[in-house]
Amino acid sequence: MRGPARPVEPAEKTRRKEGPRVREGDDGLRLGAADIGGELGARATLVQFSSAFCQPCRATRRTLEQVAGMVEGVAHVEVDAEAHLALVRALDITATPTVLVLDAAGRIVRRAAGQPRKADVIAALGAAV
Questions:
Q1: What distances in angstroms separate CA 109 from CA 5, 13, 39, 55, 126, one per listed residue?
Q2: Looking at the whole model, is its pTM more than 0.90?
């Protein structure tokens, strides 16, 4: 049985509107081309986990494609979360879009859940290149 509902603090109400939740890498976890279904970039890879009816996923795709086109050696790979449930579970992907930034060796150096801004993606690439 659950206890009484806890009132939501104002900061918690607005947190989702602030933008994506970003965290550091996953303790050196590496992904390869076979894991993500696409080739890694020479310098970095932006891996996007999406779902079919996710509107923010479409906007995220456009942003990541733009950044990958602007920065030499950066690839963008989109992974259908529903079709790759084992990978989603292994990486603890809990929302779409989720973006992983991989360095040239495939190590996860940044992770963000939610729709990123172009400036945030470029800044996150700084940790990978």
A1: 37, 29, 17, 26, 10
A2: no
